[in-house]
Amino acid sequence: MTSEPEAAAPAVTRSSRRTAKSTKRQLPLWVHFLLALVLVALLRNFVAQSFYVPSGSMIPTLEVGDRVVVSKLSNDVTRGDIVVFNGTDTFAAGTLERFTGTFGKAAAAVASVFGVHLNERDYVKRVIGMPGDHVVCCDAQGKITINGTVINESYLVGGMQPSLQPFDVRVPAGRLWMMGDNRSNSADSRAHLGDPGGGMVPVTDVIGRPVFRYWPLGRMGTTGSYASDAELAKIPAAATK
């Protein structure tokens, strides 16, 4: 008895197998969107963040409308550095809600992607006094002294006084004395001497340092030497008692 020939099984090519696998593995569009948001939030929270300069307190170093990228990769702060910091508890007098912790910061970062800033208030100033520094304005020549050393601030506009407001402060441990480069139009540590904390900004509130200006296009480039000051960095620390 002759058996009937078996029907040939349909051929399965490699391309069809790959197509089947890719179809099974394809994620919904909303998952891709969510992953993109999480990636943006992580980069913004831990690597770099873009900031807009809204005032003229740092003229001529930073102009109104400048947009800069701030690096968060290093926590080291040196006297003379320009830094961006969260002033919620200091310059904003604690009037805004503070979001802390990993989840709180991540939520704030995700919300900022949509333009929601969750009551954060950030400032950009120059670090003049480090923890322990004795900062005084002004000496007989109208100069600021740090730990008894007179400083010559090359980043100020020619002829501008270092400060029209006298002060004599000792920067506490873990705090910074901040001043804008446009001394006649900067609400910095001097403006908060009478507030809790005496206008001193916690080192832990520093977000990072500007490393690149991408707008306006005519002044686009790395921040270079203007975002720090070698002379201020070399001043000896205050003698410990």
TrEMBL record:
Q: Enumerate the subcellular locations listed in this protein's record, separating them with semicolons.
A: Cell membrane; Membrane
Keywords (A to Z) from UniProt: Hydrolase, Membrane, Protease, Transmembrane, Transmembrane helix
Indicate yes or no for the key word Hydrolase: yes
Record EC number: 3.4.21.89
User: Which InterPro entries would you find in this protein's record?
Assistant: LexA/Signal_pep-like_sf (IPR036286), Pept_S26A_signal_pept_1 (IPR000223), Pept_S26A_signal_pept_1_CS (IPR019758), Pept_S26A_signal_pept_1_Ser-AS (IPR019756), Peptidase_S26 (IPR019533)
All copies of the Peptidase S26 domain together span 32-215
Query: Taxonomically, which superkingdom?
Result: Bacteria
Q: How does it sit in the membrane?
A: Single-pass type II membrane protein
Q: Please give the catalytic activity noted in the UniProt record.
A: Cleavage of hydrophobic, N-terminal signal or leader sequences from secreted and periplasmic proteins
Q: Which CDD domains match?
A: S26_SPase_I
Say which enzyme class the record assigns.
hydrolase
Q: Where are the transmembrane segments?
A: 27-47
Q: What is its main location?
A: membrane
NCBIfam families per UniProt: sigpep_I_bact (TIGR02227)
State the similarity comment.
Answer: Belongs to the peptidase S26 family.
Provide the protein name.
Answer: Signal peptidase I
